[in-house]
Amino acid sequence: MPAGELQNPTENGTEEEAWVWAQIKTEAKRDAESEPALASYLYSTILSHSSLERSLSFHLGNKLCSSTMLSTLLYDLFLNAFSSDPSLCSAAVADLRAARIRDPACVSFSHCLLNYKGFLACQAHRVAHKLWTQSRRPLALALHSRIADVFAVDIHPAARIGKGILFDHATGVVVGETAVIGNNVSILHHVTLGGTGKVGGDRHPKIGDGVLIGAGATILGNVKIGEGAKIGAGSVVLIDVPPRTTAVGNPARLVGGKERPSKHEDVPGESMDHTSFISEWSDYII
């Protein structure tokens, strides 16, 4: 990451959004000048718009449209949601910053806005969730279906998601109806937050703030993953995981043992440290 590019913006949410939008436009202008083949695309998606809400609404509308769900209809739907609920734009900015800071492959805010399907799926989901809470469930489910078709990310519109979320790569992520994801959580591809059968009610995982869930992990049932916990890649979790601990394996077990599990001080959802537990894990043998 270039030195000085991510300067600390003001704490005021509206000013932070303005700062990020200014960065996005600057990046788009730079890229349009250096790569003329993208100039028209960058103008239509970013440079012709007066705000992040309008740019994101336009881009999502074009990504998710179909022959029977027109881009103009979706643009109006997204723009109305973003304009009427400032928390949606605030969450989008937090997600942009999460990708830019945590993912070394993210070269710019505009790159995330245009190309990160995990980011785009998350923003579209938040609108679908808003529709769900407004009892506009047929439209919420139709939007959910398009998100799954286009982005290969299947998040039920009733699921609740915080902000500062990174769906890294995102392909194959499944989040069930009663799942809850806290703030500053990072989730890799092919993660499932699912149920254990066809029992109804509150049946999906609750993910605390600052959690990191590795690629291919499966968490099933109404279990709680504590704040700042880490779930290793490929793990299968069927019971609660205490805060600040690491669960690995199938079935998952706590590093350090159930009675005295090892605890870490960092926030793995932000540090993205997937492997520090290996030196402490006695069962790790090649």
Describe the 3D structure.
Residues 256-273 have a biased composition (Basic and acidic residues). This is serine O-acetyltransferase. Keywords: Acyltransferase, Amino-acid biosynthesis, Transferase. With 286 residues, the chain is of the alpha/beta class. It is 41% helix and 12% strand. The chain has 9 helices and 15 strands. The protein has helices at 13-34, 39-47, 52-64, 71-84, 86-102, 109-115, 117-133, 137-151, 268-271, and strands at residues 153-155, 160-161, 166-167, 173-175, 180-181, 186-187, 192-194, 206-207, 212-213, 218-220, 224-225, 230-231, 236-237, 246-248, 253-254. The strands form 3 sheets. It has a 6-stranded mixed beta sheet with strand order 3-6-9-12-14-15. A 5-stranded parallel beta sheet has the order 1-4-7-10-13. Strands 2-5-8-11 form a 4-stranded parallel beta sheet.
List its traits.
286 residues, acyltransferase, 9 helices, five-stranded parallel sheet, serine acetyltransferase, domain 1
The pLDDT mean sits at: 92
Instruction: Please give the share of residues in helix.
Output: 40-55%
Spatially, the strands of the biggest sheet line up as 3-6-9-12-14-15
| N- to C-terminal distance | 35 Å
CATH class descriptor name of the largest domain:
Mainly Alpha
CATH architecture of the largest domain: Orthogonal Bundle
For CATH, the homologous superfamily of the largest domain is named as serine acetyltransferase, domain 1
The major sheet is characterized as: 6 strands, mixed
Listing every helix as H and every strand as E from the N terminus to the C terminus, the arrangement reads HHHHHHHHEEEEEEEEEEEEEEEH
Q: What structural class should be given to the helix and strand makeup?
A: alpha/beta
Which descriptor suits the 3D outline?
Answer: globular
**Quaternary arrangement of the chains shown?**
single chain
What's the number of helices?
9
